[in-house]
Task: structure prediction
Amino acid sequence: MSPSNESVGPVNAQSSSPDLLNQQAGSEKTIVVIIGPTAVGKTDAAMKLQDHLGGQSKAQLISADSAMIYKGMDIGTAKPSAEELAEYPHKLVSILDPNEIYSAADFVRDADKCIAQAFAENKMPIIVGGTMLYVKCFLDGIAQLPDADEAIRRQLVKELDAGGAQALHDELAAIDPAAAANIHPNNHQRLLRGLEVVRLTGKPLSSQWVEQAGGSAIARLGAKVILLGILPTQRAVLHQRIESRFDQMLEGGFLEEVRTLRQRGDLHEDLPAVRAVGYRQGWQFLAGDIDAQTMRDKAVVATRQLAKRQMTWMRQWPELDNCITDQPEQATAMIVKRLAALGLA
Result:
């Protein structure tokens, strides 16, 4: 498995753009959002930033990770340890059972509440994570879409497994070309959600995006938002880090974690928690569908593909200010420099 030597290249690597500076004017409340591909070192950077700002009495970490929300999914999500969470409390970590479904709308609602509480306690909210749909909906606002429907979702998952993603994407394109143009066939979560909403409402998803409930985060929360990214200089470096991290997860008991989930008896492969990167492959191995080496290789490839999708998302945000480094320990210093330029650190 030789990693690619493709360069990620600079993406909006300015220290602070005029637009970003203008956006901050006239508001004392500040929300910092730190994003990046998986395994790039976001969580560690956010915890060190909390230290720099004065500890947990001065900053509140809020997770934007669609897998860390689940209890009992610790090793495979690279969740901070119990000791780290005691010193660096994260909101929206381990808040749901793996049999529950959590939407981007749920995240926006909960993140807004966490931020309001942080402001009330005179803390700076720091959102950190790699679930880019969560971040986009938080930043831009989200239409009032219907809640998830487990029966329809299960049917869609069966259709996905039987006919493949392209067939479902073609169905969405025939009904709603605008939505299909913004959803890649390989992004199964968004594809299934798009069709789920269409089948629930009978209306194109794109028409429901038009009216954004509550508006942007700036409008909803009356705060300035600083969007910061962490990217590696070379994609090959990130690929190697992903591979090494998954091997460490295996050594740390990841398969035992998945086995514990399977032994519950109430979880199945159609659930978003079980379909999370790594967990799906571990589940298939324990079911006897693939061997150990195949499981390991598929999990690494799936994680690399996730990182690629995350970096594609990041290129779509012109206001994103990226810290580009192959040394995760340098990311915090670069973030502090950006914030200091705005008089915030």
Remarks:
- The first helix runs from residue 18 to 24.
- The domain at 150-206 is CATH 1.10.20.140 (Histone, subunit A).
- The longest strand covers residues 224-231.
- The chain has a mean pLDDT of 88.
